[in-house]
Specification:
Layout: E1 4-9, H1 15-25, E2 31-38, H2 44-51, E3 56-58, H3 67-80, E4 85-88, H4 97-102, E5 107-111, H5 123-130, E6 134-141, E7 151-158, H6 165-188, E8 192-195, E9 198-201
Parallel strand pairs: 1-2, 1-4, 2-3, 4-5
Antiparallel strand pairs: 5-6, 6-7, 8-9
The structure holds 5-O-phosphono-beta-D-ribofuranosylamine (GRF).
5-O-phosphono-beta-D-ribofuranosylamine (GRF) binds next to α1, β5 and α6.
């Protein structure tokens, strides 16, 4: 089986990117990261990619007339690298129609909460402040909303009385690093089927 060509969009430290790269390298998933793209020049995710010999590209949204032009450039880079699945990993922008149309049902994201609870920024802080006993992370297909697309996988972690935002985030992150490669594996194996809001996992 040929390897699924994955493109990763990231804005920050890139620990999920690293988890994906490691899982690919260790042969745990039939995929390879072929390009990493960031909207932030100094993003550590780019450093990680470069260290692995993966093309690491910065595109500054400010140097384009608008979101559509920026997204057209992003899509062109992804297409140039023959990307088949786009993974958002700490990408701090709302993906718009241009990228979604270029990669229909081929953009996925990881969010540090159990969606549909606590979408948007600071999912871990929102969970802590709300007082839930359990939180976790969600891998989902991306649509034009903010963290609203069909859910692929979720993992649950307890929220402890002693938790701070940092300790909860760390507990969730451990699960993110396991869950994201697992979701990519299911996609790579052609086992995900979207039916309305539901994602069915074929055996
Ligand atoms: C993760 O918590 C992810 O769920 C969220 O942004 C964070 C990115 O972390 N979307 P990293 O850059 O992968 O370390």
């Amino acid at each position: 089986m040929s390897l699924l060509r994955v493109g990763v969009l990231a804005s920050g430290r890139g620990s999920n990117l690293q988890a994906i790269i490691d899982a690919c390298r260790e042969g745990k998933i039939p995929a390879q990261v072929v390009v990493v793209l960031s909207d932030k020049e100094g993003a550590f995710a780019l450093t990680r990619a470069a260290k692995e010999g993966i093309p690491a590209i910065h595109l500054n949204p400010q140097s384009f007339p608008g979101k559509e032009e920026y997204e057209r450039a992003v899509s062109a880079v992804l297409k140039d690298h023959r990307v088949e699945l786009v993974c958002l990993a700490g990408y701090m922008r709302l993906v718009g129609k241009t990228i979604l149309d270029a990669f229909p049902n081929r953009v996925i994201n990881i969010h540090p909460a159990l969606l549909p609870a606590f979408p948007g920024l600071h999912g871990q802080r929102q969970a802590l402040e709300y007082g839930v006993r359990f939180s976790g992370c969600t891998v989902h297909f991306v649509d034009e909303g903010c963290d609203t697309g069909p859910i692929i996988l979720q993992a649950v972690v307890p929220v402890l009385d002693t938790d701070t935002e940092e300790t909860l985030a760390a507990r969730i992150l451990e699960q993110e690093h396991r869950l994201y490669p697992e979701a990519i594996k299911l996609f790579a194996e052609g086992r995900l089927k979207i039916e309305g809001r539901r994602v069915l996992i074929k055996n």
